[in-house]
């Protein structure tokens, strides 16, 4: 037992999670930054503009969930076309595997919505609050009228952009011109209001506050991307053999004479990184491959009159073996890349062919199960079938229905079905055969549906005739 007056040992409490310091990316310019902004403009022009593009009297892309129809330019897709959604998901996965194997996290660095919107929000922040040193100083300063004004202006701009993003997102499911009219007249439905606010809040929170936390801790792709990497995958890499040892020096100094490498340890590569990592520590999960550090380092190398490329796109093997660019390109055509490419482009070609030769007609046949077979007034045996026709084009069509496959099989009366544009219609077909023509049981035959004006639009489906 310890003495009554002996000092007690205090055990410090360690937090389970340590909060990361806020990242203040520095403004950078250069080749890769221009590429990033080009992709940002391209993706946002498509996202914000495509829903306003008129096409055949409607918007070009519309996912009409109420009518269960998806309009994509000239294509009208129905729930029966779910196979195309499955193929799209498979193609997206294959493309991700292929591009990641060849060139690392290109998706993350240039076209991921999280990256793009973070870049846009940062641009707004920099225009209002200033570059990195001014933003750090502003956040550290006590609250004042100026600070309140700047923060209010920034968050107001973020909120406007976020709500417009949410509005545009909903505009792909509700015709956006109708949505705009409903918004201006304050008559949005509950679900439309919810999704505009939900998607807007997600954009505001992810791009304004979470930023690199999404890439580091939440995005599943960041957690398994390294499974697709190999020593010949193109990554953003620091040339350690050329850069070390680091150290400051005058512009006129000769690094070799002072025992130094080309890295002057200015830390600008860290300051421009949107996830706040030091690329000189090697390949890291947090690196999104945006190449901001490459642009920053190249500018420093130019000022020091050193060759560019201390930080560059390269591979582990290339850095290790001092490989040339031609060798890197040649090594990119390795077996796994060729296999991914073959599967991806084969599936893509089959999908394009399928869409190009797709017949804009779908037929569904259902037997009247209440009565398997009845005797008609003329003594023949009759089966009743319910036909559901879907016109997957944007012009009204008239279809002729006929039956074949059994000697003497015929419809009780000629049957034509008019189906409006991008709509469906139903009809009852009374199919008959002469008594005694078939033995008892079921017998296969075929329904043929042909466009009365365009015989190339035709569908044939099998059905079963029940003989009692």
Give a verbal description of the structure.
With 468 residues, the chain is α+β, with helices and mostly antiparallel strands. The protein has three domains: 144 residues, no CATH class; 93 residues, no CATH class; 107 residues, Immunoglobulin-like (Sandwich), CATH 2.60.40. It is 43% helix and 19% strand. The protein has 16 helices and 16 strands. The strands form five sheets. Strands 8, 9, 10, 12 and 14 form a five-stranded antiparallel sheet that branches. Strands 13-11-15-16 form a four-stranded antiparallel sheet, with no helix packed on it. A hairpin with a 6-residue loop joins strand 15 and strand 16. It is elongated, with a radius of gyration of 33 Å. Keywords: 4Fe-4S, Electron transport, Iron, Iron-sulfur, Membrane, Metal-binding, Transmembrane, Transmembrane helix, Transport. Pfam families: Fer4_18 (PF13746), Fer4_5 (PF12801), FixG_C (PF11614).
DSSP helical segment count? 16
Q: Count of DSSP E strands? A: 16
User: Nearest-angstrom radius of gyration?
Assistant: 33 Å
Mean of residue pLDDT values: 90
End-to-end span in angstroms?
Answer: 99 Å
Task: Catalogue the unreliable spans.
Answer: none
Can you summarize the main beta sheet? Answer: 5 strands, antiparallel
Helix content bin: 40-55%
Q: What number of structural domains do the residues give?
A: 3
Q: Would you tell me the structural class of the helices and strands?
A: alpha+beta
Please state the overall shape, judged from the principal axes of the Cα atoms: elongated
Strand content: 15-25%
């Amino acid at each position: 037992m310890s003495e009554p007056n002996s000092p007690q040992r205090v055990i410090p409490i360690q937090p389970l999670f340590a909060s990361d310091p806020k990242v203040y990316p520095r403004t950078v310019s250069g080749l890769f930054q221009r590429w990033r902004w080009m992709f940002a403009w391209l993706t946002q022009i498509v996202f914000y503009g495509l829903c306003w593009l008129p096409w055949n009297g409607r918007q070009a892309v519309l996912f009409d969930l109420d009518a269960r129809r998806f309009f994509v330019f000239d294509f009208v897709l129905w729930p029966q076309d779910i196979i195309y959604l499955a193929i799209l998901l498979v193609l997206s996965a294959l493309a991700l595997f292929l591009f990641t194997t060849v060139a690392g996290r290109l998706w993350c660095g240039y076209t991921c919505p999280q990256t793009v919107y973070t870049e846009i929000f940062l641009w707004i922040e920099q225009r209002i609050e200033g570059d990195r040193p001014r933003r750090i100083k502003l956040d550290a300063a006590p609250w004042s009228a100026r600070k309140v004004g700047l923060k209010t202006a920034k968050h107001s701009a973020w909120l406007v952009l976020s709500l417009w993003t949410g509005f545009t997102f909903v505009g792909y499911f509700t015709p956006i011109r109708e949505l705009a009219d409903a918004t201006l007249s304050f008559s949005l439905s509950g679900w439309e209001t919810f999704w505009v606010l939900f998607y807007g809040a997600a954009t505001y929170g992810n791009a304004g506050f979470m930023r690199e936390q999404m890439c580091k801790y939440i995005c599943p792709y960041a957690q398994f991307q390294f499974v697709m990497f190999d020593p010949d995958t193109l990554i953003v890499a620091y040339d350690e053999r050329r850069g070390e040892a680091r150290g400051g020096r005058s512009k006129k100094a000769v690094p070799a004479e002072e025992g130094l490498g080309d890295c002057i340890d200015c830390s600008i590569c860290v300051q421009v990184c949107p996830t706040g990592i030091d690329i000189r520590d090697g390949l890291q999960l947090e690196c999104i491959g945006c190449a901001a550090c490459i642009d920053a380092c190249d500018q420093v190398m130019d000022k020091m009159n050193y060759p560019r490329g201390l930080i560059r796109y390269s591979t582990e093997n290339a850095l290790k073996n001092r490989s040339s660019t031609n060798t890197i390109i040649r090594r990119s055509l390795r077996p796994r890349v060729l296999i991914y490419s073959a599967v991806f482009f084969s599936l893509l070609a089959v999908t394009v062919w399928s869409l190009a030769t797709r017949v804009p007609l779908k037929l569904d046949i259902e037997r009247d199960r209440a009565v398997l077979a009845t005797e008609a007034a003329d003594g023949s045996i009759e089966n009743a079938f319910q036909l559901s026709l879907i016109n997957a084009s944007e012009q009204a069509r008239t279809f002729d229905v006929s039956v074949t496959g059994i000697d003497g099989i015929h419809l009780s009366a000629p049957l034509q079905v008019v189906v409006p544009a991008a709509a469906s219609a139903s009809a009852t077909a009374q199919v008959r055969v002469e008594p005694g023509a078939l033995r008892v049981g079921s017998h296969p035959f075929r329904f043929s549906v042909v466009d009365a004006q365009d015989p190339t639009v035709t569908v044939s489906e099998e059905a079963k005739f029940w003989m009692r």
